[in-house]
Design brief:
The chain is an alpha+beta fold. The protein has helices at 13-25, 60-73, and strands at 4-10, 30-33, 51-56, 77-78, 85-86. The strands form two sheets. The protein has a three-stranded antiparallel β-sheet with strand order 1-3-2, covered by helices on one side. Strands 4-5 form a two-stranded antiparallel ribbon. InterPro entries: DUF2007, Znf_RanBP2, Znf_RanBP2_sf.
């Protein structure tokens, strides 16, 4: 049986599940660690609410490639139509509806 290693610590369960879905779409098996602590919001330190994503050691290279794509998609971008700066999670410019050139 292949051992699992930590790939990433998501800031919350929502981010963890988004990444888990992206990894699983690429055939990477994922386990989440610390997901149940979200119920302690407000009572526990903020860093204890992070959710670890664990992947099989043999799939680490593939998982890192998916993680890199995720980080690139979260990067801010400048609209080629109007020049407005947009957060990475926007698929279109909030100001004019333009699309990024990625």
């Amino acid at each position: 049986m292949d051992s699992f290693v930590e790939l990433y610590r998501a800031s919350n369960a929502l981010e963890a599940h988004a990444l888990k879905g992206a990894l699983e779409q690429q055939g990477v098996m994922v386990r989440l660690l610390g997901e149940a602590l979200a119920g302690g919001t407000g009572e526990l330190p903020v860093d204890s609410q992070e959710v670890g994503l664990l992947v099989q050691r043999r799939q680490l290279d593939k998982a890192n490639a998916v993680l890199e794509q995720y980080h690139q998609s979260q990067a801010p971008w400048q609209c080629p139509s109007c020049g407005e700066q947009n957060d990475g999670h926007f698929e279109t410019c909030w100001r004019c509806g333009g699309v990024p050139q990625r």
